[in-house]
Amino acid sequence: MTFRPLKAAVLAAAFVVTPALVLAQSATTRPAAVQAGTYGVEPYHTRVLFAVSHLGFSTWYGEFTGASGSLTLDPAKLGESHVDIAVPAASISTSNAKLDDELKGDKWFDVAKYDTIRFRSTRITRTGANSADIAGDLTLHGVTRPVVLKARFNAAGVNPLDKAYTVGFEVSGDIKRSDFGVTTYVPMVGDDVHLIISAAFEKKAA
């Protein structure tokens, strides 16, 4: 008798969350099952993270948010797929407001002059069952240079919260900030920057 209320509560909780879990479980991790079409960036769950050495003592992290752009995707013809993403440079955040203001200034990103960071793919090459290399042009601080990003497919399916068909990827890559004219405090603050992009796209209506 003592345990009946607890058991009832557990069963009730399970009943409440089960529909959402069932919907989430309908997502596929098979690239071939992903719906072909045109997708738009889902900005609330897309983040561009960066890591850089700070004086050799620690690694400093930050992020950019507010991404926009599109993905044209055909799993059967991956080489014909294309991605174009733009991120507002002023969205930079390191959890330190004073540093954020400095990074937005003309000694670093100079966001008043160069307000957008943009990546446009030029070639997508499958490298594994769930992975691909994305070659493209990265424009940062007014400089455009070729880079190669590594993408891993996470899953695709109907988002149980907003009902939108969604596809998600984890993307990573490395650049040298001096290649883009951001040279302040090199080499004390690292020149090598590691990027991690958590990218979500929602399919657009036909």
Automatic annotation (TrEMBL):
InterPro entries reported for this sequence: Lipid/polyisoprenoid-bd_YceI, TTHA0802/YceI-like_sf
Alphabetical list of SMART domains matching this protein: YceI (SM00867)
Coiled-coil regions, chain positions: none
First and last residue of the signal peptide: 1-24
Cross-referenced SUPFAM superfamilies: YceI-like (SSF101874)
Alphabetized UniProt keyword annotations: Signal
Lipid/polyisoprenoid-binding YceI-like domain residues: 38-202
Entry annotated with the keyword Signal: yes
Name the record gives this protein: YceI family protein
Organism, scientific name: Sphingomonas lycopersici
Phylogenetic placement of the source organism: Bacteria, Pseudomonadati, Pseudomonadota, Alphaproteobacteria, Sphingomonadales
